[in-house]
Specification:
Largest sheet: 6 strands, mixed
Subunit structure: Homodimer.
Strand content: 5-15%
Pfam family, one: KYNU_C
Order of helices and strands: HHEHHEHEHEHEHEEHHHEEHEEEH
Radius of gyration: 24 Å
Number of helices: 13
Family: Belongs to the kynureninase family.
Structural class: alpha/beta
Main location: cytoplasm
Catalytic activity: 3-hydroxy-L-kynurenine + H2O = 3-hydroxyanthranilate + L-alanine + H(+); L-kynurenine + H2O = anthranilate + L-alanine + H(+)
Length: 446
């Protein structure tokens, strides 16, 4: 079945429920979908927190010994179980062999990033030589912009997302037609186009290949901040011809807070784009330690590396990338479309706005409904006070993310979330909304 059509998740859910002889809203469907899930074993690769370990839960409202509902992978991914063992290996190496750890063991410290870069390249659809693991996202973004932004008297603008951007949904999401129109009108004086792959607030997935093609046809460099896209959607950076990109790894790539970031430059720029800030780790490895004071810069993104990789951060990322290595982004995306589609279906089933009953609380999804325009995250707004809803969800062991002024970001991650998680969340959401509405009514002046 064509998974690019909007009706795909709904069709699967309704047909499967009919075969089971139940409503699509029945828990029976969730349990069946989990049983049939070819990726369900990957959940066992992660530590799922218990409700009792998450603040500020209320034991009168929830079974504290249950696993929590963790829908905050768009903010911080869960810990892969192998992280501790990999960290212990390097701590042991440091304790016993000290400086000799740089060039010995299964993960030599001097080559730690290179040991896992191929796993990362597979996830973003790039060649190994086009990807480097280094620094944090913001540092990499600055380093790349310093090299790609080369203003001239006639080409000096940077095209970025802004709230004033034309849109057919108020200021919630951006139409691809508007983006392409701006590129067509302004492109001749634009030096660099820089957009997010998936917008952090709305969860909107931009059409990366179309934007790249349109920008490059006008002579612009086109780059993407993939913080919310890497590990979330299928990426084909090399085949799409994207000029440069960077991403963090602590969200969907599960490397832990402040984890090692990634950067990419297309191989077509390997000899022409040079780093503005040069560090010794950008020097070719074979002569790096000769100290001859003659720079032999590594081509492409490898030349942007500044200093030796932080091995403890490499360990955490390694543990996660190995889990990704057990499957493919295509398979993860296929599950993600159905998982998020199931969440959307249940929200609409229970919490759609009822014009005939204005007192009934409702939930609106501002993330685009088209599956090709979103990743796993749905951004929700409520007819009742958002802070109260968020507080009530936390009390009941749900980890998600509130963003001012009035949005709740909910991200069922296909690596470790289940269809039963989604069903439980919807049930809990009902009691959270009821409590929030009661609190609002009690606070209102009589």
């Amino acid at each position: 079945m064509d998974s690019s059509s909007h009706g795909f998740p709904v069709t699967i859910l309704e047909q499967t429920a009919a075969q089971l002889g139940c409503s699509p809203a029945d828990q029976k469907l969730a349990l069946h979908l989990d049983e049939e899930d070819e990726l369900k074993h990957l959940r066992e690769c992660f530590h799922i927190p218990k409700v009792k370990d998450l603040p500020p839960t209320d034991s009168t409202l929830v079974n504290e010994n249950e696993s929590c509902i963790y829908f905050a992978g768009n903010s911080l991914g869960l810990q892969p179980k192998k992280v501790k063992a990999y960290l212990d290996e390097e701590l042991d190496m440091w304790a016993r062999r000290c400086v000799h750890g740089h060039f010995s063991g299964k993960r030599p410290w001097a080559l730690g990033d290179e040991c896992i870069v191929e796993l990362m390249a597979d996830i973003v659809g790039a060649r190994k030589e086009e990807v480097a693991l280094m620094n944090g996202l913001t540092v990499n973004l600055h380093l790349q912009m310093l090299s790609f932004f080369r203003p001239t008297p006639s080409r000096y603008k940077i095209l970025l997302e802004a709230k004033a951007f034309p849109s057919d949904h108020g200021e919630e999401t951006l139409r691809i037609e508007d983006i392409l129109d701006i590129i067509e009108k302004e492109g001749d004086c634009v030096a660099v186009i820089l957009l997010s792959g998936v917008q952090y607030y709305t969860g909107q997935l931009f059409d990366i290949p179309r934007i790249t093609k349109a920008g490059q046809e006008k002579g612009c460099y086109v780059g993407f901040d993939l913080a919310h896209a890497a590990g979330n959607i299928e990426l084909h950076l090399h085949d799409w011809g994207v000029d440069f990109a960077c991403w963090c790894s602590y969200k969907y790539l599960n490397s832990g807070a402040g984890g090692l970031a990634g950067a990419y430059i297309h191989e077509k720029h390997s000899q022409t784009i040079k780093p503005a800030l040069i560090g010794w780790w950008g020097h070719e490895f074979k002569t790096r330690f000769l100290m001859e004071n003659k720079l032999q810069l590594s081509p492409g993104i490898s030349g942007f590396r500044l200093s030796n990789p932080p091995i403890l951060l490499v360990c955490a990322l390694h543990a996660s990338l190995e889990v990704f290595g057990q499957t493919t982004m295509k398979a993860l995306r296929r599950k993600s479309i159905l998982l998020t589609g199931y969440l959307e279906y249940l929200i609409k089933h229970y919490y759609s706005e009822d014009k005939a009953n204005p007192e009934k609380p409702f939930v609106k999804i501002i993330t685009p409904p088209q599956i090709e325009e979103r990743g796993c995250q749905l951004t929700l707004v409520f007819s009742v006070p958002i802070k109260s809803v968020f507080k009530e969800l936390e009390k009941r062991g749900v980890a998600c993310d509130m963003r001012e002024p009035n949005a709740l970001r909910v991200a069922p991650v296909p690596l470790y979330n289940s269809f039963h998680d989604v069903h439980r969340f919807i049930e809990i959401l009902g009691s959270a909304i009821t409590s929030a509405k009661q609190a609002a009514n009690n606070a209102a002046p009589s």
